[in-house]
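Posting for a labmate who doesn't have an account.
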Amino acid sequence: MALIRGDAVETGAERRLLAEAEAALPAVLRDIRPGLSTGVSAVEQDGRRFFELGTTADDRIELRLDTAALPQPLLARTFTNTTTDRYVVQLADTLRPELAGQVLSREVGELLAVRDRATVGARVPLDSLLAPGATLPAHPELSDADRGRAEEFNYLAARMNDADLGAAERLDARHRFSELVDESGLRPRSPATDASHAIELYATDIRQDVVRPLLRAGAREAMAELARPVERLGSADARAVVEARAARAAEGAAPVVPPGFTMPGLRPDGSPVPRAELDRAAAEAAERRTSLSGRTLEELRARQAALPEGRHPQYELMIGGGAAFAARSPDMLLVDARGRWHVDPIEAIVQSADQVRHLRQSGMGDPYQFADPRQRVPLPALQLWEDTAAVRGPLVDGRAELRVGAEGRLLAEISPADGSDPVTVEVKGSPLIATGIPPEIVPGADRQVPTVPEATEHLADGLAALGAPETTAARDRLLSLPEGQDRAAASLAVLADAGVSDSLAASGDPRVAGAMETLRATAAWEEARAAAPGRVLMGDEVGDGDYDPSVAKDWVIAGVGGAAIANAEIILQARPDSRVFMVGKDAPFVLHNDAQYTALRAKHDAEYGGDGRLVTFSGRYLGAVGTVTAPDGRVRLAALDSSGRSLGVEGDAYVACLGRVSRLPHAVDSVESWARSAGGEVRGELRFDKDRQYLGYRLEFEAHGQRHACDVTGAASRMLPAHVFGREDTARLAVLNDKTTPPESGNVAAGFMATALQGSHLARHTAAEREQRQGPPSTGGPNGTAGATGAAGPGDAQRAAGAAARSRSTPRTAPGQNRPAAPGPAAPPPHLRNRPGPEPGRGRGPGA
């Protein structure tokens, strides 16, 4: 097991918390899994601190400890990767260091339970038997979280009996053990004289029977002594339980719960869709979505016909969706292009069910319903979840672009996917935009000035600054060029005049040089596409299925990242005799941790023992695309370096997967132009909830004394456009992205799980704000908008997250309760609250 310090420790308190966790880890492992603690050794490598651990050389796992801002009431969160045996435990950055050992015992116990289950391919129990308020099922069994709680009992029992600890510390552990018994449903709460006491006693006996085999001797003895009704406890133990119950009762009301919807993936009778019926269920959900889209268009047109000229129906609006459907209110009109996972030719996402196990907390779906723990989650499951969630309110399958109307109103022009006439709506409030990841960059383009419009702007400014007559004339010609595919080449022609080009070359502005690089790279790209139609592609074209696999046998993929390997899989599956040559720098660490990368290379890369159809050329720095004429006269495509020299990699087709352009969503292009052309402002601000969870960013456009705002969430919010946000925000988001999806998990911040969880946080935040303004929200959306099987909604996200949180013995937060601006001690549950410290000179402190 490797313990790696977090790369972004921001405060001394976090450093102390991690140090306490590291110090407590050996004791935690000794108390909950003695066999794993053999051969613990500290290693420093590549600037990271490791603790390697395992029973044998072939049975070693890695664990990284980190801190993070976690949503209340979580005190910790664990990412599991049973594919690569790498795990990350994040401790809440507000957790008091002396509590690290107990919290760590629960998290390590849970991840070991996940690993043990995946090793034998066991079914995944989802409902926690030991969670507060959990009902007793017909066939009781322990969830992974329950098994983590059992290890928490073992840890506390070991401390109760540790002679090296002082009496106060041992008593503290005893009280925490007893409070954990109470919270886990292992002790009746009603008095013996109450009619419900016998039923509760029966349920607690069942729970004790189920959990007992997981307890070590000391914990079994403590359970037998303390898991009794309060009236049968000793006076000190009884007083501690009564005080803990009073403290929990004083914690306040539950958090705000937005309107709820049934979790996607259920049949009309409420039973889960079996795996064998997934394709049919996805097709039926798609039909319901198409039908609702048609009805919504009819309603929009009918409402438009009843309005005077110049006015349009008013709606709250969401543009785009996917996993971000978790953020949508049922009152919102949804306009979504039904892209990404609906059109991608790949068979499954790149993560396994274990790697995205937190998805269920968002209310968007249960990955274990359609995949085994180490199996990748199939695409029809995502399609089913999305289409089921989409029908919880009015929707139009299509695209929408925002603009400011003549009277200053914010309008949305909707282009339906069915090819019917566009419709216009007036936007109420701030629209929510979740249009996904931004477009890919052209090979060889400068990353600071990645597009032709940006290059034109910087070059125009540079020419104006020179002030010479010839440069001013060149600027005017440059700005008058029409938009279109050939603008890069036309711009280069304008700037080819010796005096102009020499003056630009002498400019000290690095953006001018970058702009020229982007123009040359884009012109080369457009030339290659013209010379080899259908064989020079952006990775998104392959990922959207908008390509013909038969046009080439040998494919060059520029890039070795996630998009590149996904496209390689698509191409290799589509044509059995195809070969793929991936060329670029080094594959990012996260790629080595997903469920796709190593398996695909093992199947097709000769270096990994594969059939040789996939060849990777790493350590190469790519420039623009090149063209080569083969002996038979056919144009072939070549990978070039930044100087235009061949890298020795050629093919019949070329696919660019070199990263993405950090830009605003296309849906706001017209609004941005409205503001900037009038000399107005475009401002951006990162948005967070009270628990410091990143919700996306807000845009404000101001001109002519008018102001319009838009909220961006989901994958679109994970890359900040540099012309709106500064370096400080960009650096802050980079740290947040790594915390949201640690690379060891095989996930990325723009991925499905992270987006769904972000959406559920946004839904709760929006519901809390609305309740503060208007009172409790109404339930349900417009009549007839929900499909027969229901749809995912923020209510499910709240309930799922709440259940997960309660299973970890964490407190709840009252509506509107604010946290301090600066990180401070979190209010732990009763069994984790302050206890008397060790007696002076007697033993070591908690977790030492």
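Reply:
Got it, the structure tokens are right above this. Residues 690 and 821 are 9 Å apart (CA to CA).
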